[in-house]
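User: Could you write out the 3D structure of this protein bound to arginine? I've included everything you need below.
Assistant: Certainly. Input first, then the structure.
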Amino acid sequence: MKDLIWKKQGKGESTDSAIMEFLAGEDVELDQELLVFDLQASAAHVRGLQQIGILSDEESACLLDSLLTIERDISSGARCLDNRYEDGHSAIESWLTEMHGEVGGKVHTGRSRNDQVAVALRLYMKDRLGKLRGLCTKIAAVLLQRVAAEGDLPMAGYTHLQPAMPSSAGLWLAGHAEAFIDNAELALLTSQWLDASPLGTASGFGVNLDLPREAVTRDLGFARMLVNPQYAQNSRGKMELQALSVLSACTLDLRRLAWDLSLFTTHEFGFVQLPEQYCTGSSIMPNKNNPDTIELLRAVHGVVQGAQTELASVLSLPSGYQRDLQATKPPLLRAFRKGLQALALLPDLLANFAWQADRMRASVSAEMLATDHALDLARDGIPFRDAYKTAAAEVTELNDELIAQSLANRTSPGGCGRLETEILQARLDSLKD
Ligand code: ARG
């Protein structure tokens, strides 16, 4: 470990490497992912310092130029964070000092690593929630396209995993589409909720400089600034939990969708065939074709739930910055990495699986029309309870026309008819960027 930015006389001279490594924890790896946001915020801070005359125009131009170089080096892989630095924040200052000597030493004027990490995390969450929203709308769009193309295909509908009423590919597809539209909306609302800049609150008490916080807030694209410096620190973890709960809503729906596909691809159901690339074989049973991809997609919610619990457990803290807060980063980053990776597979998977129309049609049996029949009798004036008792015995006939009629006569919107798709499509359009 070199370049401890807080090293001063009598402090940091004899740093025990085991202790330093423990303190850094996973920061070296995780801050690599946050670095791009830290660099963005550092540039805005530099422009703020220039505005109040702490940095001359020339000094500011030098630093901004080097921050861009660092950003380019990071994305090309020419420069990366390593354990010579305590964390990403220290690395940025050390690199600027290597490049510009004393001028580099001015970048940290009026900021603390406490507001530095907080601002980087807010930018990170806004970015990831934006990506999440984009994926949710993409998933919903694919599902709705398939409703338009194949929505009328009949199949059995189940409750308790027992045959219930005639259903359709469209009802199933649009059901999952509506879920992901809800999730896209939640991602948008949550992103707006945490869209506030903590930069300029320093270690949690503000500073005796006239930092242009409003201008820096706008510069970074935040909707507003966090007003109270103590809350800037106290909100750490709380925002992260909320961001995770959006992700969790998505992976919960992903789990249910994957479960359905997992059932539909069984030999017994046979409603769906997956493209070959989503399946694997068995090392011993030559006959096997296993839907591993959908099983692992189903497992992702467990990772997110684990992260939520881990993060929430850290937050039993008094006001102000505590180093424990560093432990909120690993679950947040781990969960978003995994969750986004999984959800990104969904649009193609959903666009390319094949419905097995014959097997779906064969799953619909005459008794499934009993509810329709009971309600037909009730419409004619027979008390529903009496109609219910006679209906089951009376339904014996089944053909394609009766199934189509049953589906067409359902409550609208809600039967995956045209109107329902239009309503969902309009909501989806309003959520796209
Ligand atoms: N890695 C630290 C974190 O995530 C950065 C802030 C360090 N601040 C401090 N006062 N030691 O919280």
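Residues 27, 87, 113-114, 117, 321, 323, 325-326, 329 surround arginine (CB under 6 Å).
User: Perfect, thank you.
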